[in-house]
Design brief:
Structural class: alpha/beta
Distance between the termini: 18 Å
Mean pLDDT: 97
Number of helices: 7
Bound molecules: 2-phosphoglycolic acid
Shape: globular
């Protein structure tokens, strides 16, 4: 098995490409179930989606986010609820906030996704340690949505969003690797030089390696990896 990947000149062109794919699907399939990611990587995709949204009807679209920190109020600017509201949801005129979903500790998220018919298109970033969602190295292939402990690498990577590293939550609720693998179609996106080493490692994998959670995607039938030149600079 090998990954299908495309190298774009920059993050903007990759993001516009992805936004067009999503917008086309919303047009073709108004009841689309979209799996969404947070972090720096999807920001330009969300902006491009907003730019493309004027004549699109999002009223029947449901969104399912990959993860959320444990212990942050939703109003906290670093929560993923806040991120999604301000970077996407509030800018899509026809989108219904009631159709946005996040994993929590007190409901069965995998069952909720299933009851909506499953995720049609899932967007993923990748951590410098190979995580997808907050499935840190060691996460098992059959993991479902659950509470996870963040590794020191992830806490250090995400400290840039917080005033102080000690404020980064130590735990999150994350869709599991098995949960993610249920999506019909997956786009994994990586931008910037800091992602070049893990992208090199990922593309060299032949099979799932517990130490590189994203390598589970080798077992998925429809995954595309979108890179900018910097993330592809070690290939
Ligand atoms: P980033 O995070 O988009 O902020 O680089 C990606 C991830 O940790 O999955």
């Amino acid at each position: 098995m090998k990954f299908k990947f495309t190298i774009f000149p920059n993050s903007k062109s990759a993001s516009v490409f992805l936004a067009h794919k999503i917008a086309d699907l919303v047009k073709a399939q108004p009841q689309l179930n979209l799996g969404l990611a947070t972090g720096s990587t999807p920001l330009e995709t969300y902006q491009a989606l907003i730019d493309l949204s004027h004549d699109l009807d999002y009223s029947a679209v449901n969104t399912f986010n990959l993860d959320e920190y444990v212990g942050l109020e939703y109003a906290n600017k670093q929560s993923y609820h806040y991120y999604m509201l301000h970077n996407l949801f509030l800018h899509l005129k026809t989108f219904k906030l009631a159709n946005s979903h996040f994993p929590t500790l007190d409901h069965d998220y995998d069952q909720l996704i299933k009851s909506h018919g499953g995720i049609d298109l899932q967007i993923l970033g990748i951590g410098t340690n190979g995580h997808i969602g907050f499935n840190e190295p060691g996460s098992s292939a059959d993991s479902l949505t659950r509470k996870v402990q963040l590794t020191a690498t992830t806490i250090a990577d995400n400290a840039r969003f917080f005033a102080d590293q000690s404020l980064v939550p130590t735990h999150a609720v994350s869709m599991g690797l098995h949960s993610i693998m249920q999506a019909q179609k997956i786009y994994l996106v990586a931008f910037g030089k800091s992602k070049a080493p893990i992208i090199k490692e990922l593309l060299a994998q032949q099979q799932f390696d517990l130490n590189l959670p994203a390598s589970i995607l080798l077992e998925h039938a429809d995954v595309e990896i979108l890179l900018d030149e910097a993330a592809a600079s070690e290939l």
